């Protein structure tokens, strides 16, 4: 038998079915699905439009960016004390790649850590000094040292110069003034040697200093045969050896002939005056031929007036027979 649908109990049972808890949240799930599909649809539309017309999205944002440009502010100058105070309170700039203390404290606060208190700047901090180059000690100069009991009268050839960095204990330093005096004396002696007369060492010639200058003495047997004034070959060579000494100076050159006291009486040389003069002339002629200026030369015969030894002995007479060449040094 069919029941009446308009009856009350049937209506009440239907309402109870539609007000169940599971059916009350079903509409929200459908709403989220629809919104997700719409967002995905808009994203696909924007991507497709950008691919079809590149730059349209940037162009559409340009007017908006122009509208968002900040309006320039009107700067009103502050009084000088306030401006100084504001500049003093500004946060000092940090070096590139470093965080400011305020930013670091804010980050620590967000992370839930205690803020970091910035350390105060060091006052009167000394700048780092550049390392100075190491200065090496000056080298020690050599010093003159001598034995403590040095005998100045001994010749220097008896000593030897030794260069050492460990001197023995029995030496003493020589005063600088003494060294300077010694050098001055050495220079003075060297100058005197240079200015002194040159005394050659010639075989068969006796060299000596005289008031006029230099005296070159040669025995007659080395120059002439007995009782003659003719030079031998060895005699001419000996006279030629005198040229170097004679040409060192510009003074007069006197050639003096000497004889012993024994008289001579020959056809060519009737006396010792004639013999001594002839021998002096013979040597002058050789010197002139060798290149000595004739104005410098003179020949003198002195016979036996200036003997060197006693004429009573053969040795004395042989010593007195001689020729002397006197070089006048001006």
From TrEMBL:
Cellular component, GO annotation: plasma membrane
Parts forming coiled coils: none
Ranges for domain OmpA-like: 210-330
Keyword Cell membrane: yes
Stored SUPFAM superfamilies: OmpA-like
Family annotation (InterPro entries): Bact_OuterMem_StrucFunc (IPR050330), MotB-like_N_dom (IPR025713), OmpA-like (IPR006665), OmpA-like_sf (IPR036737)
Main localization, broad class: membrane
Gene3D superfamilies given in the database record: OmpA-like domain
Intracellular or extracellular location(s): Cell membrane
Family: Belongs to the MotB family.
UniProt name for this protein: OmpA family protein
């Amino acid at each position: 038998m069919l029941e009446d649908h308009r009856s009350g109990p049937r209506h009440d049972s239907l309402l109870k079915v539609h007000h169940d808890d599971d059916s009350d949240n079903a509409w929200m799930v459908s709403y989220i699905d629809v919104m997700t599909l719409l967002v995905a649809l808009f994203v696909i539309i924007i991507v497709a439009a950008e691919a079809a017309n590149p730059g349209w999205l940037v162009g559409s944002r340009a007017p908006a960016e122009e509208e968002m440009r900040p309006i320039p502010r009107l700067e009103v100058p502050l009084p000088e004390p306030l401006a100084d105070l504001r500049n003093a309170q500004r946060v000092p700039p940090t070096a590139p790649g470093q965080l400011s203390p305020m930013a670091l404290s804010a980050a620590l606060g967000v992370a839930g850590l205690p803020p970091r208190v910035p350390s105060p700047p060091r006052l009167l901090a000394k700048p780092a000094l550049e390392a100075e180059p190491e200065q090496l000690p000056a080298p020690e100069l050599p010093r003159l040292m001598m034995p403590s009991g040095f005998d100045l009268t001994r010749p220097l050839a008896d000593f030897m110069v030794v260069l050492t960095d460990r001197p023995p204990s029995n030496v003493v330093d020589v005063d600088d003034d003494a060294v300077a005096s010694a050098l001055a004396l050495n220079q003075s002696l060297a100058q005197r040697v240079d200015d002194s007369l040159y005394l050659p060492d010639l075989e068969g010639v006796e060299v000596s200093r005289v008031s006029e200058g230099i005296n070159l003495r040669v025995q007659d047997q080395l120059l002439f045969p007995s009782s003659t004034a003719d030079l031998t070959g060895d005699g001419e060579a000996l006279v030629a050896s005198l040229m170097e000494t004679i040409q060192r100076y510009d003074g007069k050159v006197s050639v003096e002939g000497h004889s012993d006291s024994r008289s001579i009486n020959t056809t060519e040389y009737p006396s010792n005056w004639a013999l001594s003069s002839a021998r002096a002339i013979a040597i002058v002629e050789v010197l002139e031929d060798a290149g000595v200026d004739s104005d410098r030369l003179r020949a003198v015969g002195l016979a036996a007036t200036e003997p060197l030894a006693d004429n009573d002995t053969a040795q004395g007479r042989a010593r007195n027979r001689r020729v002397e060449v006197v070089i006048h040094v001006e």
